[in-house]
Amino acid sequence: MKKALSLYELNSIVRETIEEITPDEYWVEAELSEVHEIRGHCFLELIQKDEKSNTPIAKASAKIWVSRWMLIRPHFERVTGQHLKAGMKVLLCVSPNFHEAYGFSWIVNDIDATYTVGDTARRRQEIIDKLKNAGIFTLNKELEIPMFAQNIAVISSETAAGYGDFCNQLKNNRYGFYFNIQLFPAIMQGELVEKSIIRAFNTIYGNIDDFDVVVIIRGGGATSDLSGFDTFDLAENVAQFPLPIITGIGHERDDTILDLISNTRVKTPTAAAEFLIDRLVTIDKNIDDIQARLVNTITQRIKLEKLHIDNISSRIPTLFSLVKVRQEALLDRIFQDMVNSLLIKIEKTRNHINLLSNNIQPISERIVTTERHRLEMIAQRIDAVDPERLLKRGYSITLHHGKSVHDPSVLKQGDEIVTKLEKGTITSIIK
Questions:
Q1: What is the pLDDT of residue 250?
Q2: How many domains does the chain have?
Q3: Is 205 inside a domain boundary?
Q4: Among 32, 57, 109, 126, which residue carries the largest CB count within 10 Å?
Q5: How is 236-277 classified by DSSP, letter by letter?
Q6: Do 184 and 107 fall within a single domain?
């Protein structure tokens, strides 16, 4: 019978073999798929993807013990400005470790932060190039901030001190300018920054006519939390948003992609408030200057017009005398023309009347003779159709209710009719 090894013995052989044939350390490039911190230790899942298909072709687990993690973490975050997180590419100094009970893993001894900075810069530049190639990199910068930008949509964390500072700065400005501020809450650090801010943009877009500008405020916080502002989808939304966007994210060391494509970038939330106030101060000063120039121009014009009026006034008596003489002469001519016209009209009318009076008697005699003859003819025709003459000739007339009956069908039983003859009448009842 063959002698069998226990699992512990087999794992011990593997551990000893690894320790004998592998160097102490390797520098390895990898992408982080998971990052967890447990009891001070940092546990990593490393992955390598195929460049064409983006599918995983290698995986491994790694650990950073708390004693090393306390040194590596602050240095990495100070250099990169970011937390160690999933999706990040890193250059790790690792050594192999095989434990009989826990299996194989890589122990991380160091992380080259400059490698991650370079990779982050590369990906950041790729996003910028993509925005420029799409022709939208400067779209929001091309929007004109309204002259009186007083209706402000704010994207910020509701509890952020920077948001409170921004509101106090605007509401208590020493010029007494009024600002209408409405908050659209969003998560301003961590992995949910992108989705949260885009959701706020969508809400603002639904009431876009109520606002003049959008202000994105973060304020305070570590610069390591700024990676959420360096995403393509968020940059694309900001670039194409139809309102000017002002960023006051509260950091000075670097500009995020969000800062680069926004209409206006300031350093802090209070600086954003000062920017809006200063615009109104400038506009107010310009209005005062225009008002002063306008008053001065009007005053000078009034003086010139007064001199012109005085000059005209001094000439009025002479001009009036000339006009009076001319108008009196014109009125005399008009009056004489009217008199002459009336005399001519009266003479023509008198001649017409005389002509008519000479012709009236012969015309009237002819009219009377003609009308007398016409009346005689009418009288003869009336006499010819006189009912009495018809009755004398043996005819009769039947009456019903005083009207002559032409059609017997209009009569009904019980109706009374009267038959008129030459020498009397006959009354009958219809049966």
A1: 66
A2: 3
A3: yes
A4: 32
A5: HHHHH-SS-EEEE-S--S---HHHHHSSEEESSHHHHHHHHH
A6: no
Q: What pTM value is reported for the model? A: 0.55
Question: 429 - beta bridge partners?
Answer: 416
Same domain, 118 and 175: no
Residue 342 within a domain? no
Domain carrying residue 224: 135-281
109 vs 226, more confident: 109
Q: What average pLDDT does the chain have?
A: 85
Closest CA to 139 of 242, 246, 272: 242
Q: How far apart are CA 270 and CA 169, in angstroms?
A: 7
Residue 358 lies in a domain: no
Residue 93 contacts residue 106 (beta carbons within 8 Å): no
**Is the domain of 141 the same as that of 264?**
yes
For 351-391, what is each residue's pLDDT tens digit?
Answer: 887 777 677 777 777 888 888 888 888 877 777 666 777 67
Q: With 0-12 CB in 10 A as exposed, 13-18 as middle and 19+ as buried, what is 348?
A: exposed
**DSSP code for 190:** S
Residues across the chain? 431
Mean pLDDT within 150-163: 92
Distance from C-alpha of 172 to C-alpha of 7, rounded to nearest angstrom: 74
**pLDDT at site 30:** 92
Same domain, 109 and 176: no
